[in-house]
Here is the input.
Amino acid sequence: MSAIFQAEDFHSVETGGGISGGIQASLSGRYAVALFELARDSNALDTVAQSLSGLKKALAESSDFKALIVSPVVGREVAVKTVAAVAKSMNLDPLTSNFLGVLAQNRRLGQLSAVIRHYETLLSNHRGEARAEVTSAHPLDATQITALQKSLRARVGREVALDAKVDPAILGGLVVKIGSQMIDSSIRTRLNTLAQAMKG
Here is the structure.
């Protein structure tokens, strides 16, 4: 395994540069900060983000991959070999591939989903964006996403990166979380066109 990551990277990461103390407070946050800082120093922020996006999609769509990540009975050696194979098959960049290997070696694969979320937040902060978690009853198309980003940008005064999720249980409309703020029916009239398009 490459020595890009060292064990100390995940135990004593310095704060600074706008890094959230809340992220630093958790184990997954410290892993995310270490990955983010190495990606930044290697001019690979977007490349790593793309690889993490692929992993996020795999976690959502592959029950086998998710089982590997969350299972407490998968041995260290098996986990390391399996994630190496996954990284190769998904054409992940070297930094992300190595990072997955470190998680497996440290028996921390269960932290992967949280690490991805934290990395996305760190990247949005680095870009000066707000990050919004948007839950809709049906998948949003490109036109709806653009309309929502425009409305949210007008509300928060800066660009907004969306993390879209689907939950049929909400039936219609949107639930939007930006940091600690939740926007729901209070802005449905402002997003009326979008809400009507989603009802179908």
